[in-house]
């Protein structure tokens, strides 16, 4: 996953994210940050919920919201590269890597 920062302040981060086909991140959450993803191309899949059993997949033109403290992982389930705009609003550290969501 490639992240290109556009703007960052003490309480906001925005940028462009490019994700290779088939890529899946590790489990993590963004602490006190709410995140909004706008899919530009390809597909962006977010796994979350008890044991990671829930997911949502965005396509071009879709918005995805990841509430603060939500343990999740993101990926690109397609065979094409994905690109998305991301905006995070909150305070404190912005990424916490974890083993996975609770069952």
Explain the layout of strands and helices.
Elements: E1 2-9, E2 12-19, E3 28-29, E4 34-41, E5 44-48, E6 54-58, E7 63-66, E8 72-75, E9 82-89, E10 96-97
Antiparallel strand pairs: 1-2, 2-9, 3-10, 4-7, 4-9, 5-6, 5-8
Q: State the helicity in percent bands.
A: under 10%
Structural class: mainly beta
Query: How would you sum up the global shape?
Result: globular
Main beta-sheet annotation: 5 strands, antiparallel
Unreliable stretches (pLDDT < 50, length at least 5) are none
CATH homologous superfamily identity? Jelly Rolls
Span between N and C termini? 27 Å
CATH fold topology: Jelly Rolls
The CATH top-level class label: Mainly Beta
What's the gyration radius in Å?
A: 13 Å
CATH architecture: Sandwich
Number of strands: 10
Strand order of the largest sheet: 1-2-9-4-7
Averaged pLDDT? 95
Q: What is the H/E string?
A: EEEEEEEEEE
The helix tally amounts to: 0
Approximate strand percentage = over 45%
């Amino acid at each position: 996953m490639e992240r290109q920062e556009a703007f960052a302040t003490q309480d906001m981060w925005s940028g462009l994210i490019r994700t290779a086909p088939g890529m899946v991140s590790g489990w993590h959450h963004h602490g006190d940050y709410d995140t909004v993803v706008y899919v530009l191309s390809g597909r962006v899949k977010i796994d979350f919920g008890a044991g990671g059993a829930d997911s949502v997949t965005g396509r071009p033109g879709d918005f995805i919201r990841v509430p603060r403290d939500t343990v999740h992982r993101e990926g690109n389930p397609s065979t094409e590269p994905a690109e998305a705009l991301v905006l995070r609003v909150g305070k404190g550290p912005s990424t916490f890597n974890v083993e996975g969501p609770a069952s």
